């Protein structure tokens, strides 16, 4: 059997087929699942990053916006305006000192004249700081403030406080609108930076950074990058493009690689708050891909391990199945090759009861039949060889007898010639008859002896011919038996060929049915796979809906909590408004004590302003949930500032106190009513959110149930798909086996046809041998007849010889009648010579027939030897 590579054999092909049919769908499904999971995580990550960025930037806008409003309000304070107008700065110094104590967030609050000289500070010790520049007329903020702008200075390094800071400045104007000075403040940037870094964390390693309008870092976990690295000039073009979009005030999401780490980013510009319109900042929240896709990467590793394990398991299973199919086939091929080589001694071991087992049984049955036929042919060929040997031996014996007969005939002929010569001599020399009587008597005695010898030879020849005839008769019977056996063998071979042809047709039909079954199984598998894909898509949609419902429930819970917090804050605001209204009513009742009341109102306004500031800070920390509360706190702070201004005006216009007090009471009642309405609306909204949360939770539960059911359907469909794949594989194996069986059946049929042809040739040869043996038998019968005639003639010759002897014995008495006797003897001698010549001719013919019989026997013996050689090639 020719050696072939593993993957060109049946085992290798089955292994590749199993691996392809199992691992390819698994790889496709795994890839799709991986990509969808990665896409879902990316969407969730982008949403999380966007929410974080929006929260941080909103809080930052509120915080900076409040500082913007602070500097605006302080620039309009009467104490500041009066101090700058009168150039008496004692009150301003005390006022700034009080502000510094009340607003701990500020590092410095400074007052400047129009020349840029610092004339007052919240902490007067700053004037002893060598790094503090008293005249700042050359600074950018001073120029903007002198131009009448309320200016927000971007992050910069302040030498006086030795750290990064953000500054605010505003012009101070008199009643005519003329700029009489400037007021400025500085906040340590670390305060804002801490809020951004702590509340801007995304995951375990993600963070939030902020760029200024030039693309430089102003907030980053690595402080050495602040104001020293510009992302718009980064080597990564993707990151540089994102940074440029951020400086242009655009928002979006994306991905880039920074310092060798792949990250996802969501960026959003600063939108400002209230009168503060922003200064070009843009925030970005990032998270490394390694953390964002950690679960997906883990899933990828699991998928890879599953695929490797599946490949190993499928390879083992495929090899086992392939060997269970291929090994019997290989044994069958080896067995068939041995049979083709003439070895019929083997027997296939049948273990399986499937089509392969049926094929092995059929091969065993075929070989058993061949054994029987070869055995019959061997026996018949042995008989033919034996008969041919006997014929050859008899032919040799007949040849020797014929040669002996020919020799005897020649001797007889010679004797008769001599006798004729003697008779002629007797006839010519009748006178000397008496003297030669003894010679004649002796010659006649010799003639008698020769005649007797010829008679004996004729009898022997007759016996040999009889024996040869019997032998040839036996050979003819044997040849007829061989011919009959050959005809039976041809009939058996014909029946075997017909049976094998029917088996081949059945196998072809089985192969065709297997192919049709395989096609049906493939179509069914495709339909089931489409159904499974639909079920899996439904499962994925349900899972997405379930995730959205859970997320909505989570957000609803957060919204409910925020609503409850807003309601609580609204209640506090209402309480503060009620207290303010009561204070204003008391102010109206005690208009006579207006001076003391004005002082009390100023203190209350300061405290209210501080409370509103703290509330705004807390609201900023609360993010979106506290944005509404921050607006209310801002209004309260502004109301307190207006109260301070009103107290100053009351000091100047006492007569309008009652009217203003009544109006304030009215506004307080309206504000209280609005606060109560807001509380009611907040309560209604909270109840609605609570109902929504409950509905969403119920929906999430239903989605979870649906997801479980679809998952079960998906598992069931997967089992059906696997079953159909196994059925498809089984039908494919059956189809392949059927095709190979059909091919083997055709080969067997061709071999049987060749055997049938050989058997027919043997049958024809045996018929020809039978015909030849019949011809030989006829020739032997003819030779027997001739031999009988020869025997009769020799007997007559012997009788004549005796008569001659008798005549010779009475020759002395019958001398007178010698002439007549010799004349008659001459005639008898001529007849004897003629008879001897006839015998010689018959003997030559007999010798020729015997030689033909010998040649026929040798040819028959050769054919028998060839047949025996052909049979001997089969190992039974």
Short description:
The protein has four domains: 78 residues; 107 residues, Beta-Lactamase; 280 residues, Helix Hairpins (Orthogonal Bundle); 175 residues, Helix Hairpins. 75% of the residues lie in helices and 8% in strands.
Structural class determined from secondary elements? alpha+beta
Total helices: the number is 14
C-alpha Rg (nearest Å): 68 Å
Order of helices and strands: HHHEEHEEEHEEHEEEHHHHHHHH
Mean residue pLDDT: 70
Uncertain regions: pLDDT < 50 for 5+ in a row? none
As a percent range, the share of helical residues equals over 70%
Overall strand count: 10
Structure characterization notes:
The structure is a single chain. The chain is α+β, with helices and mostly antiparallel strands. It has four domains: 6-37 and 295-340; 76-182, 2-Layer Sandwich (Beta-Lactamase); 358-519 and 755-872, Helix Hairpins, CATH 1.10.287; 542-716, Orthogonal Bundle (Helix Hairpins), CATH 1.10.287. It is 75% helix and 8% strand. The protein is built from 14 helices and ten strands. It has helices at residues 10-75, 78-86, 90-102, 140-146, 189-199, 237-247, 289-292, 294-340, 355-428, 437-589, 594-622, 627-652, 657-809, 818-872, and strands spanning 108-112, 118-121, 151-158, 163-173, 179-188, 207-211, 217-219, 252-258, 261-269, 282-288. The strands form two sheets. A five-stranded antiparallel beta sheet has the order 2-1-5-4-3, with helices on both faces. It has a five-stranded antiparallel beta sheet with strand order 7-6-10-9-8. Helix 11 (594-622) runs antiparallel to helix 12. The protein is rod-shaped and about 220 Å long.
């Amino acid at each position: 059997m020719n050696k072939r590579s593993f993957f060109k054999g049946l085992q290798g092909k089955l292994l590749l087929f199993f691996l392809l049919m199992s691992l390819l769908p698994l790889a496709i499904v795994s890839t799709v699942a991986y990509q969808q999971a990665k896409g879902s995580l990316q969407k969730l990550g982008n949403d999380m990053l966007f929410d974080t960025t929006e929260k941080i930037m909103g809080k930052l806008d509120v915080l900076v916006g409040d500082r913007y409003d602070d500097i605006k309000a302080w620039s309009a304070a009467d104490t500041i305006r009066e101090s700058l107008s009168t150039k008496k700065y004692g009150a301003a110094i005390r006022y700034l000192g009080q502000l510094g104590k009340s607003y701990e967030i500020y590092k410095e609050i400074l007052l400047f004249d129009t020349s840029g000289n610092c004339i007052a500070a919240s902490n007067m010790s700053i004037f002893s700081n060598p790094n503090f520049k008293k005249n700042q007329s050359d600074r950018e903020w001073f120029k903007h403030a002198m131009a009448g702008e309320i200016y927000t200075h971007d992050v910069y390094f302040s030498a006086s406080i030795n750290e990064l800071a953000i500054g605010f400045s505003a012009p101070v104007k008199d009643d005519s609108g003329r700029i009489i000075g400037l007021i400025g403040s500085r906040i340590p940037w670390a305060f804002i930076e801490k809020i951004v870094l702590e509340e801007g964390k995304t995951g375990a390693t993600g963070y939030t950074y902020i760029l200024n309008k030039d693309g430089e870092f102003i907030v980053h976990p690595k402080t050495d990058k602040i104001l020293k690295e510009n992302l718009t000039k980064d080597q990564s073009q993707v990151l540089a493009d994102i940074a440029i979009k951020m400086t242009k005030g655009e928002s979006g999401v994306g991905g880039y690689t920074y310092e060798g780490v792949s990250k996802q980013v969501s960026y959003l510009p600063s939108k400002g708050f209230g009168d503060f319109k922003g200064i070009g900042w843009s925030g970005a929240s990032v998270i490394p891909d390694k953390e964002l896709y950690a679960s997906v990467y883990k899933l990828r590793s699991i998928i890879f391990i599953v695929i490797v394990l599946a490949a190993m398991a499928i390879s083992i299973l495929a090899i086992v199945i392939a060997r269970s199919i291929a090994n019997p086939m290989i044994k069958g091929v080896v067995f068939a090759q041995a049979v083709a080589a003439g070895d019929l001694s083997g027997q296939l071991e049948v273990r399986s009861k499937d089509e392969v087992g049926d094929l092995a049984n059929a091969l065993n049955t075929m070989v058993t039949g061949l054994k029987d036929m070869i055995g019959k042919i061997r026996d018949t060929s042995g008989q033919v060889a034996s008969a041919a040997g006997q014929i050859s031996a008899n032919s040799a014996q007949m040849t020797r007898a014929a040669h002996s007969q020919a020799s005897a005939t020649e001797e007889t002929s010679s004797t008769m010639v001599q006798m004729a010569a003697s008779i002629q001599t007797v006839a010519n020399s009748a006178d000397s008859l008496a003297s030669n009587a003894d010679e004649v008597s002796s010659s006649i005695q010799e003639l008698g002896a020769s005649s007797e010898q010829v008679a004996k030879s004729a009898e022997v020849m007759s016996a040999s011919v009889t024996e040869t005839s019997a032998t040839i008769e036996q050979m003819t019977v044997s040849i007829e038996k061989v011919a009959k056996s050959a005809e039976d063998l041809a009939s058996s071979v014909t029946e075997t060929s017909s049976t094998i042809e029917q088996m081949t047709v059945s196998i072809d039909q089985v192969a065709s049915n297997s192919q049709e079954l395989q096609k049906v199984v493939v179509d069914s598998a495709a339909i089931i796979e489409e159904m499974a894909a639909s079920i899996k898509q439904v499962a994925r949609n349900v899972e997405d809906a379930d995730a959205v419902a859970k997320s909505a429930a989570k957000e609803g819970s957060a919204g409910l909590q925020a609503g409850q917090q807003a309601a609580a804050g609204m209640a506090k605001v209402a309480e503060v408004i009620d207290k303010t209204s009561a204070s204003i009513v008391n102010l109206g009742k005690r208009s006579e004590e207006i001076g003391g009341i004005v002082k009390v109102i100023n203190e209350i306004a300061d405290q209210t302003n501080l409370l509103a500031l703290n509330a705004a800070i807390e609201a900023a920390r609360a993010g979106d949930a506290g944005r509404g509360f921050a607006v209310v706190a801002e209004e309260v702070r502004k109301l307190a500032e207006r109260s301070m201004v009103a107290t100053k005006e009351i000091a100047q216009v006492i007569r309008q106190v009652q009217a203003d007090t009544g109006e304030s009471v009215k506004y307080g009642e309206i504000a209280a009513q609005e606060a109560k309405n807001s509380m009611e609306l907040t309560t209604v909204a909270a109840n609605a959110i609570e109902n929504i949360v409950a509905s969403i939770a119920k929906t999430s539960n239903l989605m979870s149930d649906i997801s479980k059911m679809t998952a079960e359907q998906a598992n069931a469909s997967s089992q059906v798909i696997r079953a159909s794949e196994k059925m498809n594989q089984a039908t494919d194996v059956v189809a392949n086996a059927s095709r190979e069986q059909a091919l083997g059946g055709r080969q067997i049929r061709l071999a049987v046809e060749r055997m049938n042809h050989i058997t027919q040739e043997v049958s024809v040869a045996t018929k020809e041998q039978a015909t030849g043996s019949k011809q030989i038998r006829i020739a032997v019968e003819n030779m027997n007849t001739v031999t009988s005639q020869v025997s009769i003639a020799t007997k007559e010759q012997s009788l004549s010889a005796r008569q001659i002897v008798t005549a010779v014995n009475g020759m002395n008495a019958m001398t007178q009648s010698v002439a007549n006797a010799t004349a008659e003897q001459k005639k008898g001698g001529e007849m004897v010579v003629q008879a001897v010549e006839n015998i010689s001719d018959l003997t030559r013919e007999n010798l020729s027939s015997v030689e033909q019989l010998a040649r026929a026997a040798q040819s028959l013996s050769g054919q028998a030897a060839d047949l025996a050689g052909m049979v001997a090639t089969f190992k039974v």
